[in-house]
Amino acid sequence: MYQMTADEGKCNNTYDAITLYQLFNNEQMLQYCLDKFPWAKDYLYYYIYVIYARRESILPTLSSISDREQKDFSFEKAYEYYSTYEKSKLNVGIVIPTCNRPEAIRFLLGYSAPLNRRLGVDIIVYDSSDNEKTRNIVNEFRENGYYNVSYQRYGGLFDGFSLDHKIIQIYTDYADCYDYIWVCRDGLVPVIDEIIEKLRYYKESNVGCIIVDTKSRNEGIEKEKCYEKIEDCGLFLREQAHRLQTLGMLIFSGEFAKQLVKTEPINDDNYSLWQMAAPFHSFAKDPFKVVFFSRNVFATNEKAVDTHFWGKAEKTIRQWGERWSHIIMSMPDVYNEAKEECLMVYTVDFHPFSARLVMELRAYGGLNAIIVCKNSSILKQVTKTPMWYFYTISLCPKWMLKIILHYNDNHKGVFSGIRKKLIPNMNDY
Which ranges of 24-90 would DSSP assign to H, the alpha helix? Predict the structure, then answer.
């Protein structure tokens, strides 16, 4: 087996060596490596031409391959050696909870699996579907060489409303397996290449709770800040509560996840949004360093945008009216200064009671005047959309609203422009 010299080993970890590798074209890189590892032609073909391996990782990976397996080559073994080396620097698992959305998973994996394979990052599809379609898609990807993709069936508790038990089970299953666990809903496509080096840095700094967001939701700029003192509580809640409504904005270290599961069980103060609420409760008891930054970390899953979990009016109002307001107002007293500001459910791309979505709740989700009347006090707390609008839409014929929504989809902005002139304070379409 070829052994790197001390100078070569040192060089492989320097900026100069990495820059040199990047200047090589594929043929030059192949020849450079073959000069050092004459036996490794098959491995090098796989690393350079199949998975587009990180150049600086190829020589250290080749040096780790046993004498026996130098001659016993397979794509799967080659990836195992490569991923082992990448994971020695940072071991990340992206877990995608899903249910009956196979085409969303196919799109997500088609986008993410190649990039994450190159970085040695695992993607676990955590599925509750009532059929085998999602499992079969994952198997297709594995058969096509995406050994970083795996399938896990979840058969645990689901009460028809909250995903909390499923999320907690994810952390229970994988906290001992990874340095960081990124749980992300299937409506987003996680893009990790821009943040992988930052995660390595935060691993060395023992940061257990990381909040991420995409630049497009943050005025198109990169932001970064941290919260670590009890005096930060008001700012922490004010700046991050709405962001954490979305499953995918939190990355936990394995150790932090285990601690959170142990110390913050599901209760009435966090039920239905456990992952969002639990860090705030834990921080209030014993502050720890929380880092937030924005980069290009998400793409839109085009196969998931037309379907969403909150499709029924009563379920939507229960989650983003009743439960959200209760969760915010039940935060520890150190957050009191920010609670009222956080009640309004409105972010740059998520406002479940916007003018358009109220129409959808009537046209497709069963909204009626009885539901509006029963929940009027809650709705006034969480949305700017006036109650007269709720009542008006709740009395409109469903067929008419479907026509209006269809027309608006094909003539973008028509009704939004009318709405802004007539009711300037109402949420955007």
Answer: 26-36, 41-45, 55-63, 67-71, 75-89
